[in-house]
Every structure is written in C-alpha cells, then in structure tokens.
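Course exercise 7: structure representation. Students receive a sequence record and must write out the corresponding structure in token form. The form below is the worked example handed out in class, using GST-like protein (281 residues). Read each field label carefully; the graders check that inputs and outputs are placed in the correct fields and that the protein name is recorded exactly as given.

STUDENT ID: A-19
EXERCISE PROTEIN: GST-like protein
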Amino acid sequence: MSNDKNNHASSYTPPKVWTQDKENGGKFANINRPTAGARYEQKLPVGDAPLQLYSLNTPNGVKVNILLEELAELNVKGAEYDAYQIDISEGGQFGSGFVAINPNSKIPALVDYSAESKDGEPIALFESGAILLYLAEKFGKFVPLADGSQNKARADCLSWLMWQMGSAPFLGGGFGHFYAYAPEPLEYPINRYTMETKRQLDVLDTYLKDHEYMCGNDESDYNIADMIIWAWYGQLVLGKLYDAAEFLQVEEYEHLKRWAQKIADRPAVKRAVDLVLKPIV
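STUDENT ANSWER:
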C-alpha cells in the first residue's frame, strides 16, 4: 500500500454526529443502510415439510444446512425441510415476509410449522446458534441433553457454541470484509483482524491437539459445536473462504486441519455445502 493511502487513512477525523452522506463502498454497498425493517412487500413461499428454511450457502447458512442434513442422514422423523434461497447480494433479506420472521434481516431463518406458540402461530427462529440449539434439542440429536448425567458435555457444547457466535464476526465482518470486500486494501484493519483471526485459529488448533471433536474424542461426541465452528473455521483452513489460506498460513494449524477435513468428509456435510435452495419468485 502506498504512503499516500496511509496518509489519507490517518487523516480522517470522525464528525461529532455521524450521517450517511455518501456510499460506503465495498461489495455490499448497494444494500447497506443504517436502518432496519422491510423495504418491499414479498410473501415467503411455504412448502409441505414441517421445517421451512430461508437461507443462502454462506458460512452462516451452511451451519444449519449441516444439522438438517445430519438429521436426514439418520432418517429423523419430523426433521424434513424445504429450503429457499434468500439472495443477500440483491437485498432478499429485506422482503416483508423475511423481516417478519427475522427483524434483523440476516440469514439463516427457519420456521417450524410442527410447533405453535401461545397465539397459535408457527415457531420462527433466527440466528444460526439459536436454530441449531432449538433443532438439536427438539430431536434429541447432536447435543448433550440437560438430564443431569451430561452436565460437563453440555457445558462444553454450549461454551464452544457461544464461542463461535462471539468470535466469528471478527473473522467474517472483520478480516473477511477488509481483506476481500472493502473498496481498497487498508493496512491497519487488515493487520488488526488478521491478528485476531490467527489467534482464534490457534485457540482451536491448540485445543484440538488433544480432542478429536470439540466436545470429546468419540464419534458420538460430534455435535452442533463442531458444525457451527466448521462452517467458518473449518472451511477457512481448507481454503474455501476469501482465497486467504496462503495469507493466513493455515498449514501451521495441523490439528485444526485434521479436524476440518474429517468433518468435510462426512456425507451430510458434503451435501450441506452445496445444498440446492429453491429460488423465491
């Protein structure tokens, strides 16, 4: 990066009151606004399956895909689903139907038509961690249940689940944005978020040195903590995100890569990353 860019970046002084007086640039500049809510009317389609998924095959979307496909692999009754595409690059997340089930306008979102709330409406969920925990507990699969005998296993699962929810924004919204999507490369944010991303990779690599899975060493210990972390960090070290494997020197994280490849080889995961999503017309 040239000295001129460094000087330009360092000369910015924030105003006393921020206003959106110009486009911020970057890949998603055409849809970014500082306001929430629906921008147009659109009714979401509803298929015949009990679960209706509205998503995209980004890392956040893949998390839920994996669990649904793992449940399908086990032929779990009631876990059948229809999957529809929300094209976030075109503002599909701002249609009135989607905003009604997710006021935050982010994918994924899911509606469970086999369950009802107090007012008789189907159960709607947003945030990937909430969806994974809800479905895993609903079907009693891929999560240690709170039955008194699995407290340690459940504590580990919930701890890593929440670790991912708190950590991944630094990877996606931080490193991913400034490394791959920003209108120009800026040294300070790239360095800042690269450092944090590599620290997180080291956290996982150090832990997985002594663990086959996030919550244990047996095949039965594979659970939603693995799924939710793999969607971001597993795909990253396998070279599937941001074309950043060489930049991040992912070969350093041998234990994390071993774990990531083991999960990538699962039939349900292979289907999940390339899940066919029906277009909304």
